[in-house]
Amino acid sequence: MSIYIHKSHNVNVLIYHLVCPTKYRRVVITDKVDKILKETCLGIALRYEMHFLEIGTDHDHVHFLIQTIPMTLPTNMVRKIKSLTSREIFDQAPEIKKQLWGGEFWSDEYYLSTVGKNGSETAIQEYVKGQGRQKEYIKLHKDQLQLF
């Protein structure tokens, strides 16, 4: 579960959905690799200000749900995760390196998206649009407000 991270001048909840495919989409994520990956991510969370909310592995790709701070650039976050996990996997499971011709565990490509804690993009868009027009909002949604 995500938390509100309190810093000296801000409070934030930044959540990312990251999907990393293995090199050549090779089926190399076994139970052993899954365990190494998750243990490595625990170490990353302790060392850097990243919290892994969920890690879901498939045979040829991994889904990460990560909470981090605004000072962490998304590309730097991805680079750290991919480099540190691949190094540990190759150290602890050297047989995997033989299955990957180039000696790289992750593909260069990845998918990254932000995830909202309290609503969808449309809900947030409407909320932002309505800022500064509280009286109009109350008039338009009087029936809904009376339900509470």
UniProtKB/TrEMBL annotation:
Q: Which InterPro entries match?
A: Transposase_17 (IPR002686), Transposase_17_sf (IPR036515)
SMART domains linked to this entry: Y1_Tnp
Write out the GO MF terms.
DNA binding; transposase activity
Enumerate the Gene Ontology biological process terms. Answer: DNA transposition
One Pfam annotation reads Y1_Tnp
Domain named Transposase IS200-like: residues: 11-131
This chain's protein is named: IS200/IS605 family transposase
Species, as recorded? Candidatus Roizmanbacteria bacterium CG22_combo_CG10-13_8_21_14_all_34_12
